[in-house]
Amino acid sequence: MADQAPSIDYQHLFRSLADNFLVIAPDADATILDDTERHAAVAMKSRAEVVGKPFFEAYPAASQNEADIIRESHEHVRRYKQPHAMPLIRYDLERPAEQGGGLEERYWQATHYPVLDAAGSLQYIVQRTQDVTEQHLAELHARRMQQELTESQERARFTLEALPVMVWTTDPAGEVDYFNQRWQQFTGKSTEQLLGHAWTEDVHPDDRQRVTDNWRQSVQTGEESQQEYRLRRHDGSYRWVLARSQPRRNADGQITMWVGGAFDIHNQKQMVQELLDANEQQASLSDQAYQAYQLAESQRETFHNLFMQAPALICILRGAEHRFDFVNPPYQQLFAGRQLVGKTVVEALPEVIEQGFVDLLDRVYHTGETFYGNEIMIMVEQPDGSGQPLYLNFTYQLFSENGQKAGITVFAYDVTSLVQARKVLERLTNPSGN
């Protein structure tokens, strides 16, 4: 007599499967008939709590939309007797009281399979559920990080293009690979025409060798570069610019790129030269003129340091309330000890209200007309409460984003020393005061 096959407890086998299975009756209520131990664990409900109950009584849906998605999947299997995979849904689970209670955010991927009898009639619906919460939340986090990175890159690009400064970048070897629109507008050339060392063709022939030698030395030594030279404008004229560049290093101290900026200082350069020329003429006339010459030389050195160390004050004000969004170190130094970024002009610099600067900002924001201020005096409040008068050449310029007004860019030179020097020159050239 042949050996009989051992008896198999299929219900025990089913319940022991290492996956999340739920057996549902094909009736309209989707009555729950059985589940695996694994399913009971992830659902946080025992088999005794759910078996014999309609699906949505055992597992109430968090929203009508979720319930409709599940019902449509059940109906698909009943009607077509084919498997149906549901789209990803959020279905929060209620923690047992011993685990603190409350809802736990969960995301699921579920597929419903038909089980047919010998006649092809639907006998059961088996639901296989996968908890994809960690994967889904990780994907959401990755998307948010990518979006933040994209926004950060766009913000940096906008800043480079919006500021009235000619900006460029190079590779570690000093080969230029980017010029912003300000540089292109100044020279009248595209980035493609300026890449590599082609930009040096616009440097004045008398300055070109000095500029290229100094730049090559900075690249070799890794030291910051700062130079004054004449640059050819799109109309063929040469303008004096002050150019500064510095290396960006990685965690190992290796240079990964260079970043530079240039400012048009032609007018200031001419003013200083005129001051020097006038003082040189006066120096030969008398001891008094000689003393004035010495004063002019001292002032020239002051101006030189001003141009070399803080050639421009730059900030970005956002919105109609003029809130500081970006402030460069020279601008911050002008208001040392004050928190600027994140505050409105009125909050950070209350002393400028009565001086009319907020009204000027409002006018530029609402009319879109750029304001050019020449040697405008501003009283800056000092820590001791006193007011310090400063003279600025500045530009208020409206910028837009997505076709909408976004704020104002501020670009300024501190010309206080220049104003004071001109007054000395006026006294020298017109001693009688007539």
TrEMBL record:
<dbReference type="InterPro" id="IPR000014">
    <property type="entry name" value="PAS"/>
</dbReference>
<dbReference type="InterPro" id="IPR001610">
    <property type="entry name" value="PAC"/>
</dbReference>
<keyword id="KW-0597">Phosphoprotein</keyword>
<dbReference type="InterPro" id="IPR013656">
    <property type="entry name" value="PAS_4"/>
</dbReference>
<dbReference type="Pfam" id="PF08448">
    <property type="entry name" value="PAS_4"/>
</dbReference>
<dbReference type="InterPro" id="IPR000700">
    <property type="entry name" value="PAS-assoc_C"/>
</dbReference>
<dbReference type="GO" id="GO:0004673">
    <property type="term" value="F:protein histidine kinase activity"/>
</dbReference>
<dbReference type="InterPro" id="IPR052162">
    <property type="entry name" value="Sensor_kinase/Photoreceptor"/>
</dbReference>
<protein>
    <recommendedName>
        <fullName>histidine kinase</fullName>
        <ecNumber>2.7.13.3</ecNumber>
    </recommendedName>
</protein>
<keyword id="KW-0808">Transferase</keyword>
<dbReference type="InterPro" id="IPR035965">
    <property type="entry name" value="PAS-like_dom_sf"/>
</dbReference>
<feature type="domain" description="PAS">
    <location>
        <begin position="152"/>
        <end position="222"/>
    </location>
</feature>
<dbReference type="InterPro" id="IPR013655">
    <property type="entry name" value="PAS_fold_3"/>
</dbReference>
<keyword id="KW-0418">Kinase</keyword>
<feature type="domain" description="PAC">
    <location>
        <begin position="225"/>
        <end position="277"/>
    </location>
</feature>
<dbReference type="Pfam" id="PF08447">
    <property type="entry name" value="PAS_3"/>
</dbReference>
